[in-house]
Design a protein that fits this description.
Elements lengths: L16 E4 L1 H5 L9 H13 L4 E2 L2 E2 L12 H12 L8 E2 L3 H9 L4 E7 L2 H8 L5 H15 L3 E7 L12 H14 L3 E6 L6 H13 L7 E5 L6 H11 L3 E4 L19 H10 L8 H15 L6 H7 L1
Parallel strand pairs: 1-2, 1-9, 3-4, 4-5, 5-6, 6-7, 7-8, 8-9
Bound molecules: 3-hydroxy-3-methylglutaryl-coenzyme A and magnesium ion.
3-hydroxy-3-methylglutaryl-coenzyme A (HMG) binds next to α4, α5 and β6.
Length: 311
């Protein structure tokens, strides 16, 4: 079968926005640096497949993530091809230096990335839990003054490889501070994929109790323990309508021990199709893109749907 039997569930949202992170979260974790033309082709194919949001790259320190050191060049290549549309692709920005680099390219959407735990903040950002906000505050303020939209990630929402369990209230506290700085959306990262559906529901309930609605929340699931799709279903049931995913299931954070691939966009699309939820993405084009990318990377995609449809 090349598409699932459709049985809509009226308790779920009718439409979902898939926030694609493959070119950024996927390629930041590859051992080899993917050539800039291949990255550009990947982004173009994802847009052609109908993905409404494609996070393209990161303006982080090039020595910290050499895989994405070509961010400016990539955006030049994409702008030459896509024109103004390239400026709508979100990019990760950790600090004011990153913002300056994004502004030089005329980008309109940035994403800062905070941590719910002190250890990961130190490992990923070279800042403590509180210190990270001193870095984000001027970055977000200047971005907003310049008219940019700012998304904020919160990492380690469901557990941390160094600190273990992460209290739900601690996650909500970090998320609330990022929204207070001026972020328009919070993406809740299960960076190491340890969350389970009840935990997702409890965290989302806690955000709602703090006055933060499902409309500003997104789930960013990694699939390390095979829970990404179940956790995403719990988030949809709660009322979230933005879900992060990575085509082919690529991904992981080089600074998070035991982080593996993100929820595969193809696996998400198959489930959304079966539930009759609109998303605007062409599954066959995505699968073809993942097969092509697997050829570039020299290994098969971990996505179950790519395996099932790609043979
Ligand atoms: P630092 O070493 O503390 O930086 O790194 P600094 O502020 O002390 O500056 C030191 C030098 O770096 C200065 O240059 C700066 O100009 C330069 P110098 O004056 O010595 O010549 N510099 C930069 N250069 C280029 N671009 C920049 C930049 N910033 C400073 N943006 C820093 C702090 C935040 C920069 C570093 O820790 C970093 O780049 N970290 C990024 C790590 C990363 O990208 N991790 C992966 C993304 S997060 C993720 O994957 C999780 C997520 O998917 C959600 C989830 O799954 O949970 C989002
Ligand atoms: Mg991630």
């Amino acid at each position: 079968m090349r598409s699932p039997h459709v049985v809509p569930d009226p308790s779920l949202p009718r439409r979902v926005t898939i926030y694609e992170v493959g070119p950024r979260d996927g390629l930041q974790n590859e051992e080899t640096v993917v050539p800039v033309e291949v990255k550009a082709e990947f982004v173009r194919r994802l847009l052609d497949a109908g993905l409404p949001v494609v996070e393209a790259t990161s303006f982080v320190h090039p020595a910290w993530v050499p895989q994405l050191a070509d961010a400016a060049e990539l955006l030049d290549v994409l702008a030459a091809d896509l024109g103004d549309r390239a400026r709508d692709l979100p990019v990760l920005v950790p600090n004011e230096r990153g913002l300056d680099r994004a502004l030089e390219k005329g980008m309109r959407h940035i994403a800062v990335f905070g941590s719910a735990t002190d250890t990961f903040a130190r490992r990923n950002l070279n800042r403590g839990l509180d210190e990270q906000f001193s870095m984000f505050a001027p970055t977000v303020a200047r971005a907003r003054e310049a008219g940019l939209d700012v998304r904020a990630y919160v990492s380690m929402c469901f557990g941390d490889p160094w600190e273990g369990e992460v209290p739900v209230d601690q996650v909500v506290g970090v998320g609330a501070r990022l929204l207070d700085l001026g972020a328009s959306q919070l993406s809740l990262g299960d960076t190491i994929g340890v969350g389970t559906p009840g935990h997702v529901t409890a965290l989302l309930d806690a955000f709602n109790a703090a006055g933060i609605g499902d409309d500003v929340l997104a789930l960013h699931a990694h699939d390390t323990y095979g829970q990404a799709l179940a956790n995403t279903h719990a988030a949809l049931r709660h009322g979230l309508t933005t879900i992060d995913a990575s085509t082919g299931g690529l991904g992981g954070c080089p600074y998070a021990k035991s982080a593996t691939g993100n929820l595969a966009t193809e696996d998400l699309v198959w489930m959304l199709d079966g539930l009759g939820i609109e998303h605007g993405v062409d599954l066959e084009q995505l699968v073809a893109t993942s097969l092509w990318m697997a050829g570039q990377l020299g290994r098969p995609s971990p996505s179950r749907v790519v395996k099932a449809l790609g043979g």
